[in-house]
Structure formats: structure tokens, C-alpha cells
Specification:
By secondary structure, the chain is of the alpha/beta class. The chain is built from five helices and seven strands.
Amino acid sequence: MRYQDKGFEVSFNRDIRYGEGGIHHGTTSSTLPLMLDFYEPRDEPSQSPRPALILAFGGAFHRGSKETDGFEVEGRCNTSIAAYCHTFARRGYATFSIDSRLVQEDPDPGTTPTILDAAAIPRSRVDAVRQLLGLPPATAGMLHAGIEAACDDMAAAFGFVSAQADRFRIDRSPLLSGLSFEQIQLVIEIRLVWLRAIGLQSA
């Protein structure tokens, strides 16, 4: 029942640097420190490695942060990423909330492509969020760069946490991520790239 009961106190460790990412890619480029927050279960009777979760905030790649992605829509507000992290940590999971670069920061898309067709990126949610933020419609290239950067940031967080397994006292093998709806679409794209690379999916 360890990972179902909410039995642990939680220690909060804020702003641990897990990497850096390029921004203002199309103008004067610079780098942005990438941070994560660590929610650690306390007072465990066992010192064995714990399962870990890495959670990414939602916001259509345009808003939100590792502290909050709770937004009110039609009188209702979604549960924030911080609340999810705290809940999982209370159940015994070592839980991490990561920051990642946003589309408006004109991020460097990197050199490990994930999106197969930039023109096919679903736009309905993105367009609605940009309108709420008072931004003009984004080009396919802008969205492509933002999503590629977010994928790179999640990959960097995985690498960092896995390399620091002893520090965080986690088990590397069940290292899991929690994704928002738009990020689930990215996982599908990533899996298609992998299947095509090994010859199990036609282009």
C-alpha cells in the first residue's frame, strides 16, 4: 500500500539546475538555465531506492511553469503541477517538476528532430492560448521550434535525474514521466520516429 496511501511528509527542494537551453535563436542567441523542483518523501522506514516521476507542466507550450500551470477556464481551474507532485511524493514517489522553454522565447530546436511534419501540428489549443495571451497566430516554424525544445528539455531532465540516482535515492529502472495532453501527442510522434528507424512503420 506504500504507493497508494498518502503517508509521508514531503521535503521541497527548489531550483535545482538540470541543464541549459538556447533561446532567442533567430536573433541574438543566449542560454537559459533549466531548473527543476524536487519533492522528496520524508521519514521513510526503508532506505531502498524509490521510484521516480518527472512531471512537465501543461500550457500548450506557451504558458505555465514548474510551480504552477493551474489556469481557470469557464469558471473551472485544473490541478496544478505542483499539487500533483506533492500528492505523489506523499505516496512515496521521488517526484520532479521541470521547467522547459516556451514558444515565445524563440528556443533553439536542437538537432534531434521529433516532429515529423511541422504543418501537421494540432493548433486548436495553441491558437486559443495565444489569443488569451494577446499574441498573434504562430507560424508552423515557431511551434515546431518550441515543441522540439520542450522535447529536448524533458530528455535533458531524464538524463540529469538518472545520472544523479544516488543523490536522489531513486531507482533508475521505473523512471517515469507525466505529460499534459499536448505532450502525449509528442510521445506518439517520438514512437513513430523510433518505429520508422527500426523499419516497423512506413513513412
